[in-house]
Amino acid sequence: MENINEVLKFYDAGAEKGRLERGLGIIEFYRTKEILKKYITTNNNTIYDIGGGIGVYSSWLSEMKNDVHLLDIAPSSIKYALENQSESNTFIAEVCDARNINRTDESADIVLLMGPLYHLQDINDRLRVLSECYRVLKKGGLLFSVGISKFSTTTWSISTYGSKNEFLNENIFMDMLKKELTTGNHIRPKEYPYLITQAYFHNPLELQNEIELAGFKTINKHAIEGIIWFTPDLNEKWENETSRNRLLNILNLTENEESIMGMSPHFMVVSQK
Fold first, then answer.
1. Which residues form the signal peptide (predicted)?
2. CA torsion, points 18, 204, 67, 44, in degrees to nearest 10?
3. What is the pLDDT of residue 1?
4. Which residues, including other chains, have CB under 8 Å from residue 41's CB and lie 6 or more apart?
């Protein structure tokens, strides 16, 4: 994995700790679980959570009585995940490079790939990861792959989140945006240490095509935060049951709409071996 030191440094600094419990992460976490529950309708599945970080989804899936294996490249994330398990959500957790999954052929019912594909800027590395997922999945097994939209930084900077800043007046920021929009490569300038580390940002069809190159059949694509994420005072509205349900209704009506899916910061491709 290129820029491995940058990636490890980013996650060793605790980037994932509490991220899904605040701000837009709350909506991302809720929606990701909502989508997964559409397809994971039984328990006792063998699930590999590849690149699963500190184990937030591994913990949730293990509570649903699945056999979960958290496999992540960052030793600090694995250590944190193991230290924060409880008796009701135990899972296996091991250090693993997604390009060389340390599991046997056709041993998983389900694979989550909700991180590695957007930290690999070389398409050959991404295809190697997808090939490994194909290898470890049983025939008929499901793969859930998440991408970050190549438009995510741009829409963030011109939305309610960036409106109080002057990013569009900063040449360094604009140079970063241009590279994202033209190549998909996100290279974080040192001037913006709070942004996600080096990454590759897809558009939805591009991610789907890469997954299909590895032999998978696409079942569906889902916007995760969708078109509601730039709603003013989103978290306040989310806390109100009535407004939250209306926002979710909008999301559920539009989550598969390809013409606007790239507006969502994250999207998920559901595919089958």
1. none
2. 120
3. 45
4. none
Query: What pLDDT is stored for residue 116 in this prediction?
Result: 94
What tokens appear for 240 in the block?
């109100």
268 beta partners: 146, 222
Cβ-count burial of 105 within 10 angstroms (0-12 exposed, 13-18 middle, 19+ buried)? exposed
The answer to whether the beta carbons of residues 95 and 75 sit under 8 Å apart is yes
Q: What stretches in the chain show pLDDT beneath 70?
A: 1-5, 8-9, 12-15, 162-164
By CB atoms closer than 10 A (0-12, 13-18, 19+), residue 69 is buried
| Nearest CA-CA partner of 92 in 58, 137, 116 | 58
User: Where would I find the H helices in 137-258?
Assistant: 152-158, 171-183, 204-213, 234-239, 241-254
